[in-house]
Amino acid sequence: MTSSVCAGARRLLLVTHRPLQYAGPGSVRWRYLIDALPAHGWEVSVVSARTNPTQDELSPDPRAASLARARARAMGRIGRVARPLCKRAGIQPEAFPPHVAWTFTGRRAVRRCYDDVRPHAVVATVPPMSALFASVGALRDAAAPLVADMRDNWAGHPTYDAGGSLLTRLEERALRRADAIVAVTAGMQEKLARLHPQLAGRLHLMPNGFDPCLLGRRDDAHAAWPERVTLIHPGVLYGDRGLGALLDALGRPGIRERVRLQLVGNVTHASAVALRRRRDGVDVSVSPPLSWEGVVERVAGADVVVVIVPASMGDDVAWPVKMFEAFALGKPILAITAGGATEALLRELDHDKALARDGDADSIASALRTLLDGPPPAPLPLDRIARWDRSRVAADYARLLDRLVAGSAGAA
Q1: pTM to 2 decimals?
Q2: Is the model's pLDDT at 80 over the cut of 80?
Q3: 163's torsion region: left (phi>0), alpha (psi -120 to 50) or beta?
């Protein structure tokens, strides 16, 4: 357990299976909130599973990243064997990874921390679901209100759900115990309301957003593109987030002479194979995972941010964190998606000069030509992106917690 509790402040217990020292959007979000919430009267203590270097796939430490890739390959082989049987039950094998055991083994730690801290409220983060399940199991008689902080949905997500009802039933049983349910995208909020209509009144939108410190590195509008335009994909390539179609598009005449691609983070085996095949004629560099600060430095020096969101990875609801960070830094976006939530938001913001279909090299090439044949898009005005400023999200989160505590006290 880590703690930063001051006398007189309200106390929040954060339960997360994934330790916050791991890399990734969820960890960065909560590291920011832990620092920001005290200004709003809330001090945070954290209980998590023990660190396991084989599970930190986003780590900037090459050894940890290598161990995580090896584990992912092994789990992938197991998943391929188990998938036919799992699909009969309407689930994907990824729905129940080994660390779901923390549902039971983590309860003692959660209860011990609850009794030590005596929090006014508890937040359990998802995914994985084990943090919420452990909290529900450990705190059945607890008076403090419980918040389920959903960075991703479990039921209805194609990575976990194969169309059955099991995950919906299990998720609903856990969420029914929560006094509030936080979603990080509007699409996720809507999907949760559809899956669990009786819980719709408890749903709240608290987006991932961007650290306001990025605004100090914001890019100004440029009259013209540089001779060689730098595209950057910041973040690990995993699952079905592949490079094949993008590399094919970058190799087209009229494009390959004008662009370079920077990849920052681990790549899958399939992407590594695609890179070896397309290395000739495509200017591409690959960097190992970096710290968040290191990634921001690379993005600030690039011209266009690439986001890739396949349908199989929740494109219907996903808003990638790198998109908001690009907004804050004033960067245009090449969005390679299945046409879901990311594309809809870019259209809503009129920041849609380069929209392409995942897996379709012709579509990606067309989007790049449209982008590069015109002037660089102007950065989005600050008032258009203010709702994703994490300082604003922290204030909204504190107000939600205050209301829950007041309601709990009133009920008592």
Answers
A1: 0.89
A2: no
A3: left
